Each structure stands twice: as C-alpha cells, then as structure tokens.
C-alpha cells in the first residue's frame, strides 16, 4: 500500500500541501483533480522523494521515502511519468527504456533490451524502438516515458499531467495506453485535467484545493449531485473545466 499521512510541504511563506492523507491500494486507479497551484504535482514529487517533507510521512509498501536508506527501495516500487518527457536525447527509445533496469536492477543488457523492446511494442512503438527522441512525435516520446517507467515493473505508477504538453491527437494516443493499463490492473495515481477520462478509468477521485485534500470519494459518488457536486468548490471547478 502507498500511504500519505498528514503530509505538509512549504515553499517559503506558502504552504503547498497542508495535512494531506491518502491511501492507494494495489490495483486501484486514483485520479487527483484540482486547479493549478493546488499541490497536485508537489504531491507526486513528495511521493517519489524529489521534495523533502516539512511534516507527515509517506511510505511505499512500508518503505519511508524520508529515510535515505529506504528511499531507493520505495522508488523501485513506484514509477513516475512527468508532463515533460525527460528522455536522454543521445539514446534511442530502447536505450532510454533499458537504462534503469541495467543500472538500478543490475539486469544483463541482453535481457533488459528484450524486455524494453517488448514494452515498447505494447505501447505501439516497436517500429520506432531504435529512433532517437528528436525523431519522435510528442505523443511517441511520452509513450517512451511510460515504457521507461513500466520497465522497472513498479507496483505503483505515478502520472503527473502526462498529456498537458500534447496536442489533442497525441493526448488521445497516450490516454488510450493508460486506459489499457488501468483495465489490466495497473495501480495508478493520476494527476490530470482530463476530467472525462478520469471519470472513465478511476476507482476514486481525490480533489486538492489550496494544498488541502477536500474530498476523497468513489468516482460515481464524486460526480453525483449528493456527493462531490454538493461541494460548491468542486461544482465551480467542474463547471469551469467543462466550459474550457
């Protein structure tokens, strides 16, 4: 289980996360909604240990991300895909995907390459496996990013606005892959502005507002008039998103 207990994160005079509690169980798909600046991306960065906590505790299968000796084990269990692709430009797609299994998991290169090619094939990129990032479209680069995270065989997939830098056609490509992963039982914490997609794939919806977790509800309840929509802040947010 991935647990977030009373997590607090401060940047200067601004409290970005304020006492956030969250539980992600294996097999769940949980989407995180909220306006820009609500703390969504910071939450992902705290879970993978890129930001130091100012309060509270985060554990990934009981490994505490705040403890240096446990952080490496926690990261082996969670894979992160960011909104920017962060691929190594001097490496081909397959080389980007196989790098961490070789360097971190110490897998033989031949085994890692075979696995990388299989994963790239699963996200529709087998013909582009030997292409460099500059030779790929934005949607293809983001799918390489997904493949790279999946190559570590994570128990938890953390997705931070992975479609925000893509045009509508490329967004559809990436969302199709995520939908397949969700239906296959991949555990996901999905920070997104793709409201309708979140409604389709999520078991639960979490809503952050000014760093506080406003609601954590089953998806059907979140979108019901007696559930999440009964909260004026959520109703306002969803109304604006639908207009946009």
UniProtKB/TrEMBL annotation:
Q: Which GO terms describe its cellular component?
A: plasma membrane
Task: Write out the entry's keywords from A to Z.
Answer: Amino-acid transport, ATP-binding, Cell membrane, Membrane, Nucleotide-binding, Transport
Q: What GO molecular function terms would the record report?
A: ABC-type amino acid transporter activity; ATP binding; ATP hydrolysis activity
> In what way does this protein cross or attach to the membrane?
Peripheral membrane protein
- Principal cellular location given in the protein's record: membrane
Q: Which residues form the ABC transporter domain?
A: 2-235
The family line of this record is: Belongs to the ABC transporter superfamily.
Q: Check the record and name the PANTHER family matching this protein.
A: AMINO ACID IMPORT ATP-BINDING PROTEIN, GLUTAMATE_ASPARTATE IMPORT ATP-BINDING PROTEIN GLTL
For this entry, the protein name equals: ABC-type polar amino acid transport system ATPase subunit
